[in-house]
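Page 47, continued from p. 46.
Same chain as before, 155 aa.
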Amino acid sequence: MAEQTDVKTITRTVNAKWKGDLRSEAQVRDCPPFFTDEPKGRGGLFEFPTPAEYVLSGLSGCSVAHVEMFAKEVGMPLTDCRVEGRLTMGRFEPDDERSRAGGILGIEFDIEVTSPGTREELDRVQQLFREKCVLYLFAKSAVPVTDSWTLIPPA
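Result:
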């Protein structure tokens, strides 16, 4: 008999097809397809975002969504939220210790929250974010991740 568990799982599926010149076409659910590419210096055409840029887009989008969720949870009104994400990579020899995470040296997020709320509310949102944002925690388990937060009063 299979072991019963209380863990609920979600599986996301993406199908990608090779399109030549280091490009791929990816499909998620019934959404429009999207494409990945590599810089010309690596043999790509550089017409579309790179896979690393898509990863960073996913992390940044997840961050925006979680800021909204946690702001609601603490009762902080949200007028706007913007996240600038940066992923820094190095090219290292395979036996170089720094290549252990694929050469990713770190990820940085600048998170700007526009709200009439208080700094204390933003601090609580930040705490919840660092404890519960799924992709933030995933990234942080692999590479150094830093985040800086700014509260901007509405105009």
